[in-house]
Amino acid sequence: MSPELISILVLVAVFVIATTRSVNMGALAFAAAFGVGELVAGLDADGIFAGFPGDLFVVLVGVTYLFAIARANGTTDWLVHGAIRLVRGRIALIPWVMFAITGALTAIGALSPAAVAIVAPVALSFAVRYGISPLLMGAMVVHGAQAGGFSPISIYGSIVNGIVEREKLPGSELTLFLGSLVVNLVIAAIVFVVLGGLKLGGRGPGTGDDPAGEATAGETSGGAEDSETPAGTEVDTRLTTARIATLAALVALVVAVLGFDLDAGLSSLTLAVLLSVFWPTTSRRAVGEIAWPTVLLICGVLTYVGVLEKMGTIDYAGQAVGNIGVPLLAAVLLCYIGALISAFASSVGIMGALIPLAVPFLAQGEIGAIGMVTALAVSATVVDVSPFSTNGALVLAAAPDVDRERFFRQLMTYGGIVVVAVPAVVWLALVVPGFG
Question: Tell me, what's the pLDDT at 299?
């Protein structure tokens, strides 16, 4: 049995054990990375840890720390009430507002994870407070980010268009952008309907379920050290000193990430530390709210994926498909490989690897290059709702007051549905019409 096949079977075993024995998948993945890396791939510890996602670790810790402080001192409550006033109490519009905001951010040049890191914590806090499905809100944020992600001036769009130009393939920036926009918009609409978005239409503030309840009112408002509100009363939405400082920190995060292209994780962690210096009591509680189990889970799985990349398993799978002699079959399999691997790894990295793999049969002229490139790009990014991708991990970590294990399973199930359904749909819509 080849080392590549062994590594794939071990990955399957990790999923099975984690699902049936309720063991943290990240811990299992670290053990698998050690076993496969040392015994099968011949890697030393440095080689194994080369796949540890240090940047994502800092993003998850920094963003969840900063927004835990914002929740503790009542800033997110203030933002939620502001959003309610903005849409005049029509709660059903809020998921679409979040979709539009993240889409606009990525369309003008923000990295998709950066946009999600900024919007998701506020969106998920709103969802929990007003009884909106966290899965619905998280999906709307991620699909919004991907909807704008391939504009001609966006990061993803620039990368894919650059690869197409380098490989001397026919390209269409508009087709790439509109293809991703339409697919994500349609998915968002379906998710909105299926997960109860239409039932939110008649609800306004104070109506419907409020799972945050009175405890949230007492805890989040009382968290500001210059403002105390007894439990069971209305949430205090005054702009206290702590909240003004936190709002300034959130604005600074947006400016740092979008205006100066600074790292979202390091920026948010630095801002959280600054707030902690001035309001240590609130911040001390916030440290315990960092999503450590989620950090372990995501970092463990991605470390194992790094071992797979280092030992050539991902290239092995891609080349095996690229060597198939039936162009349409090879095309759909490449879309599925892009979706499956991207659910656990870098979307940009997958696009950079798959598009060149498609060049040999694209050169035959039987498959339209523009449709194929668009299908690959959409397949490799629409699955970022997976809890193992950066965006999905941010959504999972940002959701307050939820059963994280249950929410993780929901995201994983939804991500699996997207992996199964979307590549076939985009293949039928974008690749098959251009065949022949």
Answer: 84
Q: Which amino acid, residue 231?
A: A
What letter represents residue 196's amino acid? Answer: G
Would you state the pLDDT for residue 309?
80
Cβ count within 10 A of residue 392? 25
Evaluate whether 101 touches 118 at the Cβ level (below 8 Å): no
Within a 10 A sphere around the Cβ of 255, how many other Cβ atoms? 12
Q: Is 0.85 surpassed by the pTM of this model?
A: no
Which ranges of the chain have pLDDT less than 50? 205-234
123: its two tokens: 């969106």
Query: What would the two tokens of residue 195 be?
Result: 């997960």
| pLDDT on residue 228 | 35
Query: Distance between CA 389 and CA 381 in Å, rounded?
Result: 10
Q: What is the DSSP letter of 428?
A: I
Asked if 138 contacts 94 with a C-beta cutoff of 8 angstroms, the reply is no
In three-state secondary structure terms, 132 is coil
Q: At what angle do helices 134-147 and 369-382 cross, to 10 degrees?
A: 150
